Amino acid sequence: MSASTTPQIGSGSSEIFDSLPYYDNDLEQYPHLKQKVEQELAREAGTTPQELHPKVPPPFELFSSNPLLKAELDRCEAHEPLPQLDTVRYQLPGPVNSPASDEDWRKAIGNAHAQLEHQRIRQANLALLQQYGSNAWRIHNYRLESAANTAEKVLEELKNMTTEVNRDRKNIQTRFGSQLTSLETRWTELISSVLQIEMANAALEADINQLNKKEAELAAL
């Protein structure tokens, strides 16, 4: 039913769509139309749209205020390997020069102090992790489970809303489609009646012309 229209369901928009997808069956009635639609869909699938729909929001830029995270995201998107860890800072090299100067020894000693401080902090962190880590992970897992349950509930609500909207659209389109079919049938009947009346008028005019012609012939005699 190519002339069917229906308002958009689920919003206050005044947009009008020239189709009733839940009711129209033109593709089933005309296989050649279905073949053309499939060819067009296959052609569009291989092309990239030049611009998005106006209702599609613009792309959101992640980590715009954090250059380090943005650089890491760009690295992951580019499928680049992770840089190797710098292990020099965890070593205790001696003075490079031989014989070593006092400045070289001061640098080596400073590096050793930094390594010792790092190990001390690491040991303290391990002790804290052993004492409080298990409870912290339990709390973290509980929060994750709560967030997952909330997301699942929201997803289920959205699915129910989507199902309800599609059900309403189908009911409305089915009702409108039946009305349009009835009106189309009535329109066809009226057009047929008008054609029959026009044919009857043409036949009557032909009979009248024939009678007028006979009347003229009788008057001439």
Task: Give a structural overview.
With about 220 residues, this protein is mostly helical. The protein has a domain at about 85-95 and about 100-185. The protein has 4 helices and 2 strands, in the order E-E-H-H-H-H. It has helices at about 25-30, 30-45, 65-75, 100-220, and strands at about 5, 15. It has a two-stranded antiparallel ribbon with strand order 1-2. It is elongated, with a radius of gyration of 41 Å. The two termini are about 60 Å apart. Mean pLDDT is about 85; it is low at about 1-15. Keywords: Coiled coil, mRNA processing, mRNA splicing, Nucleus, Spliceosome. It is found in: Nucleus. Belongs to the SPF27 family. Its main location: nucleus. InterPro entries: SPF27.
Largest sheet: 2 strands, antiparallel
Instruction: State the helical fraction.
Output: 55-70%
- Helix/strand-derived category reads mainly alpha
Strand order of the largest sheet: 1-2
Residue share in β-strands: under 5%
Q: What low-confidence regions span 5 or more consecutive residues with pLDDT below 50?
A: 1-13
Secondary structure blueprint with pairings:
Blueprint: E1 6-7, E2 16-17, H1 26-29, H2 31-45, H3 67-77, H4 102-220
Antiparallel strand pairs: 1-2
In short:
With 221 residues, the chain is mainly alpha-helical. 67% of the residues lie in helices and 2% in strands.
Give keywords.
mainly alpha, nucleus, mRNA processing, 2 strands, two-stranded antiparallel ribbon, spliceosome, 67% helix, disordered N terminus, coiled coil
